[in-house]
Amino acid sequence: MTGLMSNIEDYLDELFPNPKCELNYNKDYELVLSVMLSAQTTDKRVNMVTAVLFEKYPSLEKLSMASVDDVIEIIRPIGTFNKKALNVIEISKRLLTECNGVVPNNREYLESLPGVGRKTTNVVLSNLYNEPCLAVDTHVSRVSVRLGLAKEGDDPYVIEKKLTKKLKREELCKRHHQLVLFGRYYCMARNPQCENCKLKDMCKYRKN
User: Fold this and answer.
1) Could you say which of 11, 39, 41, 92 would form a disulfide bridge with 63 (CB–CB 3.0 to 4.6 Å)?
2) What is the DSSP letter of 113?
3) Does 137 participate in catalysis according to the annotation?
4) CA 8/CA 138 separation, integer angstroms
């Protein structure tokens, strides 16, 4: 596996030498809200609605006092908007009253926020605090199974643990972004770009 991992890492470095989160944010709480909103939708769509949301409500104070109906209308394009609108307001209120408006480097607290699970927390901790976390979304999961780094049917937590063992701790943040981007732009669920992929010889999808 060591040789295979080196091939994978080298190719990811070649494709994405300086990977980064594609969600747009300028403040720490904006990242939390953006990742929460990104569940079951695309980063591109989230960026469209948060551009409007964060301009209209440019602070936690204003977000915490926002009308639920207004937030729903703004984020409607991303789906499951009723629950997510409530989450936006509740997260804003809690960060204000419990954390003085600062997103803490605290997994337990972050996972206690509505709509924030392990994946969202991993994204937040890795991007804001450079913590060695690897979030497993649909892209990371798909790529991991196709490259034999995980098994079909493994849940996100199992995949996270498997990848964490195989990858260098200090590179987890970078590898997470690379795997997401690889799955998003090259190893897509439908019509992946297999022909020119340097990993096709080890790919289970390609062999099936």
Assistant:
1) 92
2) S
3) yes
4) 18
